[in-house]
């Protein structure tokens, strides 16, 4: 959910070298260098991909997506099958029955609550991270998820802030959509 294109640099270069194909890595909306556009749905991200390929004058392409990018790639395949040559989906399925959207939303709400608390503004980064870890532990959040979420805490202007993109507000607002995969498309 918080991945950025630069994490794919080595893989993109390897694919380009091995296949002699042009490879374009890009940040989805509300990720990395892309703007926070508010709406974060698979349909809007799929439309962004088609707009990018139209702008680049690419008629047919192969698409690789990981996690949210994988579900976005599936949406492109369902909505615009005529555009795809090949589809590669990594580490995600259309239905994630083992994920509880409300529990995950609760994790992000807990982080948001701690960061927006005026009393937190006087605490150091390690102190805020410990508060977040304690809150997530009470919510039965797995240690890997706790560690992952605390990596997006950093020093801001006189307080600890969320450094990840998308913002906590956008994640919280769209979490059900992002964890689920409500296909509105007929195959």
UniProtKB/TrEMBL annotation:
It comes from the Eukaryota. Signal peptide: none annotated. Residues 7-99 form the AB hydrolase-1 domain. It catalyses: 1,2-didecanoylglycerol + H2O = decanoylglycerol + decanoate + H(+); 1-octadecanoyl-2-(9Z-octadecenoyl)-sn-glycerol + H2O = 2-(9Z-octadecenoyl)-glycerol + octadecanoate + H(+); 1-octadecanoyl-2-(5Z,8Z,11Z,14Z-eicosatetraenoyl)-sn-glycerol + H2O = 2-(5Z,8Z,11Z,14Z-eicosatetraenoyl)-glycerol + octadecanoate + H(+); a 1,2-diacyl-sn-glycerol + H2O = a 2-acylglycerol + a fatty acid + H(+). This is sn-1-specific diacylglycerol lipase ABHD11. Its EC number is 3.1.1.116. Belongs to the AB hydrolase superfamily. The keyword Hydrolase applies. One of its GO terms (cellular component) is mitochondrion. GO terms for molecular function: carboxylic ester hydrolase activity. Keywords: Hydrolase. InterPro entries: AB_hydrolase_1, AB_hydrolase_fold. It comes from Orchesella cincta. It is an enzyme of class 3 (hydrolase).
